Amino acid sequence: MLMLVLALASKANNTAQVKVSQEKMLDRFLSYVTIESQSIDEASMTSFPMTEGQREIARFISDEVKALGGKNVKVTLSSDYYVYIDIPSNVKQAVPSVLFMAHLDVTPEAPGTDIHPIVHRNYDGGDLVLPAGITLSPSMPQGAHLKDLKGKTIVTSDGSTLLGADDKTGCAVLVSLAEELINNPNFKHGRVMIALTQNEDVGKAALRYDPTVFGDKPDIVVDIDKNTPDFYSVANFTAIGQSYYFKGNLAHPGHGKKNGYADALTAAAYFIGLVPPEINPSAREGEQGYVHCYSMEHPTDEKGDTIYSDYVLKVRLRYFDQEEGEYQQQLMADNLAKVQAAFPLVEVTKIADMKQYENIAYTMPDYLPDMVENAAREAGMKIKPDKGRGGSTSAMMVAAFPDAMPGGVGLYSGQQGIHSIYEWCCIEELMQLVDVTENLITLIVNMK
User: Fold this and answer.
1) What domain range includes position 368?
2) Which of 24, 154, 233, 433 fits a disulfide with 410 by CB distance 3.0 to 4.6 angstroms?
3) What three-state secondary structure class fits 145?
């Protein structure tokens, strides 16, 4: 603990004169959220649509960081509009490198165009009545954290759109971190990398990420994109998406066997029924995984016409434990064989089997959770580890690049009321989160 105190005291002395001001943080965040960077949700996992707003915010931030200068700092804007910032080490000894991540797009799940942010200074602790006629209150789930922020600076939309705090808070924190590192050569740090990704809110942040831009595999990964100030993620589901095609034949059922009636609907229903109800999501909690048959629809042909004889079934496999994942995979393989045997006239094939995100715990450095908690504590935040029943950018990256990306913790970014017209953030918390990241960098430099 003494080494921790000394390291962070040294960091405080080195950065006292170059901190980004609160007003600059506010202006930075406002400049980001007024750019309409809403992503598009398309069913195909291989498509990567890009809106002009997504391009605009990537160009804006790329130019902003380039203008900061910095000796040997490299800023890359990719053809897919990811922003990569590479700040080289300024210490002689070899220390672990760290990659921070956030995302540039905002969700398509709520109105996200023509955003008008409203700044509520010296928040009085009560209800916030927004111009569009809605009220954000500490008594409602979306505003519960407001009770802890009396006297602070709160930013909302006008109530007709989302704000874009998910995850432009994370972007503002990381660009401010970059500015402070660049402006203060006396701040001792190892190699710091920042990746601002696209299409995260539609589950595709890893789809066009290019690990060769940074070259070396980062030692530590931190994802600044959570909405829980009291918790940080140390584990998550491994998520696999499967699709099965049931090809049928709509002959008259009165002479079904003679006419080759291939009953794809019943075959698909039989497949679903073979999944034990005790592993359905409705029966699972905590660190228990599940198998979820969640969609069954008619496919379409090349002309877009519905193929009424056929069905496509979509299935989610979710698990924390690798052994449970092996069981789920074997279960589905066995069920496929059973359906093929029971309905020989129906052609049943697995047409997709994609790992969407991997459990970050499998490859996360053992020392990272304690280090993150210490960095947060010294910035005035008390956080506890959480094993989330969901994913993250880090989890997507580990699934896509298992040899180039270790599992990374997920930290609060300041976003609240996400994916809704109640979205908001607190500017003082964004300032605090910059301190957390700097504390972590200092602890990394002083590792023994």
Assistant:
1) 2-236+359-445
2) 233
3) helix
Q: Are residues 243 and 152 in the same domain?
A: no
Residue by residue, what is the 3-state secondary structure of 33-80?
Answer: HCCCCECCCCCCCCCCCCCHHHHHHHHHHHHHHHCCCCCCCEEEECCC
Question: What value does the mean pLDDT take over residues 289-304?
Answer: 95
User: 144 to each of 57, 138, 139, 148, 414, how far by Cα in Å?
Assistant: 30, 4, 6, 8, 13
Question: Which residue(s) pair with 241 in the sheet?
Answer: 316, 354
Instruction: Write the CA distances from 379 to 139, 284, 376, 383, integer angstroms.
Output: 27, 36, 5, 11
The pTM of this model reads: 0.88
> What pLDDT was estimated at residue 16?
47
Phi, psi (rounded to 5 degrees) for 85: -120, 125
Count the neighbouring beta carbons within 10 Å of the beta carbon of residue 448.
3
Cα 222 to Cα 347: distance, rounded to the nearest angstrom: 45
Phi–psi pair at 27, nearest 5 degrees = -60, -40
Boundary residue ending a domain (356, 371, 404): 356
CATH of the domain at 314: 3.30.70.360
pLDDT (tens digit, 9 = 90+) per residue, 46-78? Answer: 789 999 999 999 999 999 999 999 889 999 999
pLDDT tens digits, one per residue of 231-286 = 999 999 999 999 999 999 998 888 788 889 999 999 999 999 999 999 999 999 98
Is there a contact between 391 and 236 (Cβ–Cβ < 8 Å)?
yes
